[in-house]
Amino acid sequence: MKTKILLLTGILLFSLACSLGSILPEEEAKPTAVPAQSEKRCGDGVCDGPENASTCAQDCAAPEQISNEQPSSQQPEPPHQEQEPPGPSSEPPETTADTLIGQVYVDVSVNRQDGEGSCPVSPWGVDHMDGGDYGCSPPMYWFGQRLHATAFQIVSIIPVSEGAWQITAEKPGGGAFQEASMWSDGQRVCEPVSMEGKPFAFSVEGGALDGQIALTLSAIPVEVANWTCDNGNTYSRETTLLRIGWGIAMTGDYNDLSLILEESDRIAPGEYQRVFSADTNPSPANRDHVEVTLEFNCMEQVAEGELRAVACPWEA
Q1: Can you tell me the distance from the alpha carbon of 41 to that of 54, in angstroms, rounded to the nearest whole number?
Q2: Which end of the chain is more exposed for a tag (fewer CB within 10 A), N or C?
Q3: Edge-to-edge strand list for the sheet holding 190-197
């Protein structure tokens, strides 16, 4: 699109320069009238002395006739009309990548086995990406957990150069927990009484080059567990256990939610899917099982609120 705009601007500037060039030289070349010299006779081009309109009409023409006569070459030119930019109908309609829409869908689940084990290693010893470390006196009892969340984001697919597209958020995305639960063997000093997951922001940025789709996801889902203890005390605790498992399953690094989709991930024209899984949280055996499914689809809008799956532009 930028190339088309620059090309159109160049054509308009060139047309304007040519138009000015055809007008200005003509203005500069207008001859300056030189007054005729009187020879004191009829026919010398000067009406003086005894000459008048009746005795020497050729020198003494009526002033009205002289003032109203204009050489045909000096007739005023019509105003110059600049070239109008081509309208939408001047080119055949085409489906371009800058009108294409994409959607990213993610499904994440973490299932933790309850039971006694060893003290946690990082990052589970913190269990929150923003901190919140707690002590451990072995053997440690691990509460069972089941966490499940989904996230969705609409993106724009914009061409930036030959064979390259930018993928950027079209509108704010979001995620929500489908399940958040915790349990124990019922013999703990403090027991979980409820657990919920907060709605969370979700965004996607990336690009496509040579058929590969690079995506970076951003999300920090937070769980909140409410506890009650034998002494009557109650408290709440926030964790980001789903987010930690999500990152480890995708990249091995709980801080990193990035990936590259390949041709092998394409399951249909315009549809890509990648499944990640990991058994992690050694304590001492891996206690957490994580599964992540990511789907990327190219779409086009056919009516208000109606989308249709299409092949991605780099598949052509």
Answers
A1: 14
A2: C
A3: 190-197, 223-229, 234-239
pLDDT tens-digit series, residues 44-53? 676 765 566 6
Domain boundaries defined on the chain: 2-27+36-90, 97-315
Identity of the amino acid at 254: Y
Residue 290 contacts residue 126 (beta carbons within 8 Å): no
Question: Phi and psi for 230 in degrees, rounded to 5?
Answer: -60, -30
Q: Tell me which long-range contacts 136-142 makes (C-beta under 8 A, separation of at least 24).
A: 140/116, 140/283, 141/114, 141/115, 141/116, 141/184, 141/185, 141/188, 142/112, 142/113, 142/114, 142/115, 142/116, 142/117, 142/283, 142/287
pLDDT tens digits, 252-268? 999 999 999 999 999 99
Average pLDDT of 80-103?
A: 47
Residue-wise pLDDT tens digits, 178-237: 999 999 999 999 999 999 999 999 999 999 998 999 999 999 999 999 999 999 999 999
How far apart are the C-alpha atoms of 267 and 250, rounded to whole Å?
19
DSSP 41: S
On the CB side of 83, CA atoms within 13 Å amount to 14
- Please give the model's pTM, rounded to 2 decimal places: 0.67
Q: CB of 313 within 8 A of CB of 100? A: yes
pLDDT band at 72 (very low <50, low <70, confident <90, very high): very low
The H or E element spanning position 57 is none
- Distance, CA of 74 to CA of 3 (rounded, Å): 42
- Our CA dihedral for 149, 154, 160, 161, rounded to 10 degrees, sits at 80
Between CA 297 and CA 204 the distance in angstroms is: 13
Angle among Cα 309, 312, 314 to the nearest 5 degrees reads 170
